[in-house]
């Protein structure tokens, strides 16, 4: 009993400290960007026959505390307290002329709600030290073609921590593709812009997935977007288990976003639906669907301080006892078991002054799941996390 009480007191102390850090950071920091992390203007230099190149970089790390760790023994995700690199990235791009390119290289981490916290090493093993790299042909200001390792068109949150208003990505992000290899066509006309891509979906190395994004700028403050992705043929059973592999490639995903940006406010609600068809060859003996909704918001308090928040709901289809759970099919897509649903809330105060930034995440996830199942393949159905991230950008 004494050990139990000591454990409870320790966890209560951790939660109190995390809450205090998250709430006090804006007050001690001093003075917020319209975007919590704004990359400084790039360094530009002449590269001979390549013309002028832009160079940017980001070096950042994070420390965290979590209750109910979800990771396998011996991994970063199994720790109550830990630290790692979030970004050690160098970006080189040429964005003038008809032939352009973009290269992003280095170390990175993808911390995500309801999922085991990965190490930067494990993420590099998945996508390599060159996660994004592509050539771009721009015949006119209205059209372009890209080919290479491309960031996904799907979802409202970016892949790397510095691209988002929160440090951790959310529940809906967890079931989206992240990086795909393929070719992408872009076009714009007035307030309408569109992109269409033929790629390998969830990094499967089989190029039979089509994704698209259509956006309409209602005015200077309001934009509505629709995105979709689905397979054009059968998936490869030997697809590597990177970002959900073959099961993800066999699924269809649709989303609708609305973004309002005016003065100090940015508000972005979106809804998302994913359907995975029956496929005995992939251990999916019953089709199932996931659907969710989220609201992301950011408020710039001063020239250097902002406060961001995210609220989400995610429902995972299926029925208890089905192979969707026993083979971890549902969890491989959402880190939640079949026949479950979850809520999350995240609050992120951010301080940025020039190239320096510091921010804190305080997040809580609670799930309703079949008996014996929980978050990220475990049995716990709640999780509190606190994260601190700081670094420099140039």
Question: What does this molecule look like?
Answer:
This protein is mostly beta strands. The chain has a single domain (2-393), classed as Porin. The chain has five helices and 17 strands. A hairpin with a 2-residue loop joins strand 5 (132-140) and strand 6 (143-151).
Order the strands across the largest sheet as they lie in space: 2-3-4-5-6-7-8-9-10-11-12-13-14-15-16-17
The stretches of 5 or more residues where confidence is low (pLDDT under 50) are: 1-34
How many structural domains? 1
What's the mean pLDDT score?
Answer: 87
Note the main sheet: 16 strands, antiparallel, barrel
Output the CATH class name.
Mainly Beta
**Overall outline:** globular
CATH topology title: Porin
Distance between the termini: 53 Å
**Which H/E pattern describes the elements?**
HEEEEHEEEEEEHEEEEHHEEE
Enumerate how many helices there are, as a single number.
5
Q: State the fourth-level CATH superfamily.
A: Porin
Helix content: 10-25%
Rg calculated over all Cα atoms: 21 Å
Give a short summary of the structure:
This protein has helices at residues 2-29, 120-127, 245-249, 323-326, 329-334, and strands at residues 43-46, 52-66, 81-94, 99-108, 132-140, 143-151, 179-189, 192-199, 209-217, 222-231, 252-262, 265-276, 288-300, 305-316, 340-353, 356-368, 382-393. It has 394 residues and is mainly beta.
Highlighted features:
globular, 394 residues, 16-stranded antiparallel barrel, Porin, mainly beta, single chain, 5 helices
């Amino acid at each position: 009993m004494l050990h139990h009480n000591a454990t409870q007191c320790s966890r209560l102390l951790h939660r109190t400290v995390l809450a205090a850090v998250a709430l006090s950071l804006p007050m001690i920091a001093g003075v917020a960007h319209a975007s919590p992390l704004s990359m400084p203007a790039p360094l530009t230099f002449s590269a001979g026959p390549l013309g002028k190149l832009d160079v940017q970089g980001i070096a950042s790390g994070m420390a965290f505390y979590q209750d109910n760790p979800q990771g396998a023994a011996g991994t970063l995700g199994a720790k109550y307290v830990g630290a790692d690199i979030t970004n050690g990235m160098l970006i080189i791009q040429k964005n003038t002329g008809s032939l352009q390119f973009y290269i992003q290289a280095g170390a990175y981490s993808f911390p995500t709600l309801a999922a085991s916290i990965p190490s930067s090493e494990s993420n590099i093993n998945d996508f390599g030290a060159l996660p994004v790299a592509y050539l771009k042909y721009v015949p006119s200001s209205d059209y372009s073609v890209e080919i290479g390792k491309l960031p996904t068109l799907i979802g409202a949150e970016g892949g790397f921590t510095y691209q988002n208003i929160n440090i951790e990505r959310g529940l809906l992000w967890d079931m989206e593709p992240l990086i795909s290899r393929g070719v992408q066509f872009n076009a714009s006309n007035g307030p309408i812009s569109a992109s269409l891509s033929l790629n390998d979906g969830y990094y499967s190395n089989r190029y039979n997935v089509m994704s698209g994004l259509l956006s309409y700028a209602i005015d200077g403050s309001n934009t509505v977007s629709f995105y979709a992705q689905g397979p054009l043929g059968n998936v490869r059973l030997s697809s590597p288990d990177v970002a959900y592999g073959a099961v993800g490639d066999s699924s269809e995903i649709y989303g609708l976003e609305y973004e309002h940006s005016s003065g100090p406010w940015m508000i972005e609600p979106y809804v998302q639906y994913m359907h995975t068809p029956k496929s005995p060859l992939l251990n999916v003996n019953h089709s199932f669907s996931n659907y969710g909704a989220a609201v992301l918001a950011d408020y710039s308090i001063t020239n250097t301080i902002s406060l961001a928040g995210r609220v989400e709901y995610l429902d995972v289809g299926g029925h208890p006892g089905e192979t969707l759970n026993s083979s971890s099919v549902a969890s491989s897509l959402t880190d939640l078991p079949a026949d479950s649903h979850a809520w999350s809330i995240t609050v992120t105060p951010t301080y940025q002054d020039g190239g320096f930034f510091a921010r804190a995440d305080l997040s809580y996830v609670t799930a309703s799941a079949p008996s014996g199942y929980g978050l990220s393949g475990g049995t716990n159905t709640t999780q509190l996390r606190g994260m601190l991230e700081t670094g420099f950008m140039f």
